Amino acid sequence: MLKTVINILRKYSLFFLLVIGIISFNLYTFKGDYRVSENVGGISNYTKVINDKGIEENIRFDSSDLYSLGIWLKMNTLEDDIKVKLLDGSKTIYSGNIPNNDIKAGEAKEVTLKLNGEKGIKVQKNKSYTLVIKDNSKRRYSSVVYLNSQKKLWYKTTYKLLDSKTIKSAAILIEIIILSFWVYLIRFSHYRKRLSKFENQFLLVSVFLIVGYALFIPVYRAPDEAQHFARAYGVLHGIFLVDSSGNINIPNNLIPVVDVVNSNYIDTIKNLHVALSSQLSSTNIINMALYTPQSYVLQSLSIGIISIVTKNVLLIFYGSRILVGILCTLIIYYSIKYIPVGKEVLAICSLLPMNVAERASLSADGFTYTVVIALFSFVIYSLRNENNITNKMKVMMYILVFFLASCKVIYFILGFLVLLIPNKKFGSKLKGVCHKLISVIILMGVSVGWLKIASRYLVNTNGGASSSEKVMFMLKHPFNYIEIMNNTLWKNIFAHIEQMIVGPLGALNIEINSGILILLIVVLVRFCVFDFKLNLRVLFIWMLCLANVLLIYTSLYVQWTPALNGVSQITEIIGIQGRYFLPILPIMMVSFQLNKINNKDVSIVNDWRSIVSLLVINMLVLSNVIGFFAI
């Protein structure tokens, strides 16, 4: 009996380790009650003087468990004695003074009042209460509170959405059930033969994670997602080029959330009823104007399809997130299926949390990664395939090159990967040269053409106004520019690695536990074997990747880095994010395995451990995201 138990533990040791990991991480993540903060309107510059008569404001709460109340104020002197009361009719249910131990005189700051310590107080949901703010110091016109854009008192409430014990137990139970079901599918079910193919494992896990990230990353909270949503909606309705000012006319409630950078689940719940309006308003999306309309082909298609079914704004948004993610995943699925080497590397890189989160958003970056991977897979497949490239494959190559040049211009250099395809694969040396020349013409023509169009937007971007001076500085002082890049690299290298692999997610402000980063690095090192022989083909790929990195640095230097004290005073490039290097990562890692390209057995992959590890790690990331909003 004991021997049997030991054998089972050995055979399924990874499964039991992952179960222990799920339990431990969720117990750590959900420490307290799951509380949600809600802002009432956006903070404005409007103020109101606190006097001895007091300021009264009628407020309502969306939950019966109220933990804290926050207000913005400025105390010109710490001698002011400001008292806050919460009244239920004439009955005082809370009374307390503004804590001034962490307030500086004359500083505008948000002050949080903890109601009854960590216990909070009970209120009736949606009932009207009176908030009274009064200055008892008898000093006049000393302190002020800040109002929202409607000139009402700005305040932030924090209340319990879910009990920590409930959500902790639910997360552990759901994640263990999903893990168990996955192990059952690939080890015991009658689908196990089909799932022995690595690309099928990737597809199943990826679609599940796409739905998870699409639903649990709060509304509009992916990087610049609100602007991407507006740009894609504009493309769908024929606005291919944005006005030079960056303004675009969209339905006035297409983005009903005020603070998209800090949106949470309550914003989703409160706006679920919003139906798309026929009234238009102008919105500035200057940074998204730099993207070609082709970058939004999947987003616009998804928005159009979902809009046929419903006019609910958030259903259109979330439905489009999921559909875009699934479409990108299908393209990557075929890329993994047909690439002869590096299947596991491609799948692992495509299942990194930051990568999945980008695909499960309306950002153009997920589609950019997908196109890069598809073209790279096409090139490596052509190297291995014994037959000549068919006409359909030639058309596919041109389409991929066109879209690669149409996505972020900084990745156009990777289009030169087509030069790796032997000329004889096109039928003859002359035909090969001609097809490659056409590809390069498409690549350069589309890229340079769009750069000329997009240059008119640069003057209105952060740092773009001095773009011509920066270009001249690089040409005249190349070694100074190299020093700037070197400073930027070594100052931010570890942050960029973390951002590329795991986050922060959302609007780059949802912190992910660093332990997950360590686990992902272990998976990358364990399953992505570094076994290569340096040859001209590998060297060419490395040169393209290096050139791409230089383009990323230069693009952000020209477009985004401000020159407040003159171009010559710039010491660091601003705006570089680790996620920009995601398309380069799998190309570099697969290049380490290209010496196996002629090995007939290299494409056979039956190891399910890497995929199941990535599944669990991503579930932990989603727990981290949900737990991030617990206060």
Outline the fold blueprint.
Elements: H1 2-11, H2 13-29, E1 34-39, E2 43-49, E3 55-59, E4 65-75, E5 82-88, E6 91-97, E7 108-114, E8 121-122, E9 129-135, E10 143-148, E11 155-162, H3 164-187, H4 192-195, H5 198-216, H6 225-236, E12 247-251, H7 265-270, E13 280-284, H8 297-309, H9 313-338, H10 343-350, H11 353-359, H12 365-384, H13 391-406, H14 429-458, H15 467-476, H16 478-501, H17 514-527, H18 536-559, H19 584-591, H20 609-628
Antiparallel strand pairs: 1-11, 2-10, 3-9, 4-7, 4-8, 4-10, 4-11, 5-6, 5-9, 12-13
Shape: globular
Could you describe the largest sheet, including whether it forms a barrel? 7 strands, antiparallel
Number of helices: 20
Q: How many beta-strand runs?
A: 13
What does it look like?
This protein has helices at residues 2-11, 13-29, 164-187, 192-195, 198-216, 225-236, 265-270, 297-309, 313-338, 343-350, 353-359, 365-384, 391-406, 429-458, 467-476, 478-501, 514-527, 536-559, 584-591, 609-628; strands at 34-39, 43-49, 55-59, 65-75, 82-88, 91-97, 108-114, 121-122, 129-135, 143-148, 155-162, 247-251, 280-284. It is built from 20 helices and 13 strands. Helix 3 packs antiparallel against helix 20. The two termini are 47 Å apart. The model has no long low-confidence stretch (mean pLDDT 87). The radius of gyration is 28 Å and the shape is globular. It has 631 residues and is of the alpha+beta class. Strands 1, 2, 4, 7, 8, 10 and 11 form a seven-stranded antiparallel beta sheet that branches. A hairpin with a 2-residue loop joins strand 5 (82-88) and strand 6 (91-97).
